[in-house]
Amino acid sequence: MARTLITGGAGFVGSHLCDYMLAKGHEVVCMDNLITGNLDNIAHIKSAAFAFVEHNVSNYIDLDGPLDYILHFASPASPVDYLEHPIPTLKVGSLGTHNVLGLAKAKGAAMLLASTSEIYGDPLVHPQPESYWGNVNPVGPRGVYDEAKRFAEAITMAYHRFHGLDAKIVRIFNTYGPRMRLNDGRAIPNFLRQALEGEDLTVYGDGGQTRSFCYVSDLVEGVYRLLTSGENYPVNLGNPVEMTILEMAEKILRDTQSSGKLVFAPIPEDDPKLRRPDITRAKEILQWEPKVKLDEGLKATIDYFKKTMALS
Ligand code: UDP
Q1: Cystine design at 73: which of 8, 94, 283, 295 (Cβ 3.0–4.6 Å)?
Q2: pTM check: above 0.85
Q3: Distance 169 CA to ligand 1 centre (A)
Q4: CA 257 to CA 237: how far, in whole Å?
Q5: Mean residue pLDDT across the chain
Q6: Which CATH number characterizes residue 43's domain?
Q7: pLDDT tens across 52-77, in order?
Q8: In what order do the strands lie in the sheet with 69-72?
């Protein structure tokens, strides 16, 4: 039985990865310090092949036994979260990634780093291929996340080149689905919560900025394919269907039949104006592309939000 460590395993994407790897027959160790993760996300897992360890990977990681794979997903990941936790965000991307790489090297495990479309910053090339180096403000409010992830990519490649570590880097574009935190501050959770409470939806700027939203099950499938591939250079994973934030807000109002309306609020500093992944490499190398349509994914997410809001 392969044994896999998932850092950030109690988070939104991490908890879906726990489910997926268990279903693939892996023994799973889920590690999280619960800064933005939540035990509710893994409470349904009853498997004897699953263990939870509460630990901050920015500190030395002591883990007994063999390891075959590490999925390194620990980090605050929403702009609101990393503005609230700037130093832990910088530390987990840098010190945390170093510790995870050290563990992978000691155990002879393959390691996959969760990187991000944020490494492209406010991009001057559209859509964004992996060969684009980005347009990042290192000292802006988003720099704590963007630069930590850029460092994480650099040290991961260094461990691959210098130590021969089997390392993979996935650049994750906007992802949504059940288990997103109601208050994580991102566009879809904010709009859903506001719409379901009959509040007005807060569109930042004029809403003309674009994003491309990928349903979480598609992302997780792509992550697994990359992990088990022979590829060591970064691969974008995301849904290339691009829309404006205004269109997303209007769609959520319609789909929830909300009585709320749209209100406009100031755009956050360095908010990227355009974002869409070029997924040519994922298609070629992993034979991967998203399957879940926005209507279907949003319906499952709305159902989750309704259930969770009824409980809280
Ligand atoms: N956004 C918005 N209203 C909100 C939350 C976000 O208009 O209540 C906008 C935000 O300014 C950005 C886009 O939606 O342009 C996506 O933001 P999110 O926080 O989801 O993630 P990002 O893609 O910026 O990392």
Answers
A1: 8
A2: yes
A3: 24
A4: 31
A5: 97
A6: 3.40.50.720
A7: 999 999 999 999 999 999 999 999 99
A8: 50-54, 27-32, 3-7, 69-72, 110-116, 167-172, 235-237
**For the CA of 275, the nearest atom of ligand 1:** 23
Condensed to tens digits (0 to 9), the pLDDT of residues 20-39 reads 999 999 999 999 999 999 99
User: At residue 202, what are phi and psi to the nearest 5 degrees?
Assistant: -90, 100
Residue among 215, 130, 136 nearest 169 (CA)? 130
Residue 231 lies in a domain: yes
* Residue 283 domain flag: yes
> What pLDDT, on a 0 to 100 scale, did the predictor assign at position 188?
98
pLDDT tens by residue, 149-180: 999 999 999 999 999 999 999 999 999 999 99
Tokens of 171: 């650049």
Question: What number of H helices and E strands is found in the chain?
Answer: 10, 13
Q: Name which residue sits closest to atom 24 of ligand 1, judged by CA.
A: 271
Query: What is the count of structural domains for the chain?
Result: 1
Within 10 A of 235 (CB to CB), how many other CB atoms are there? 25
Question: Which of helix, strand or coil describes residue 263?
Answer: strand
Q: Which residue of 271, 275, 276, 301 sits with most ligand 1 atoms within 8 Å of its CB, as the best mutation to test the pocket?
A: 271
Residue 248 domain-assigned (yes or no) = no
What is residue 89's predicted lDDT score, i.e. its pLDDT?
A: 98
User: How large is the average pLDDT for residues 209-216?
Assistant: 98
Which residues form the catalytic set?
145
Structural domain range at position 54 = 3-176+214-240+275-292
In a domain, 97, yes or no: yes
Residues with CB under 6 A from ligand 1: 78-79, 174, 186-187, 190, 202-204, 209, 211, 245, 267-268, 271
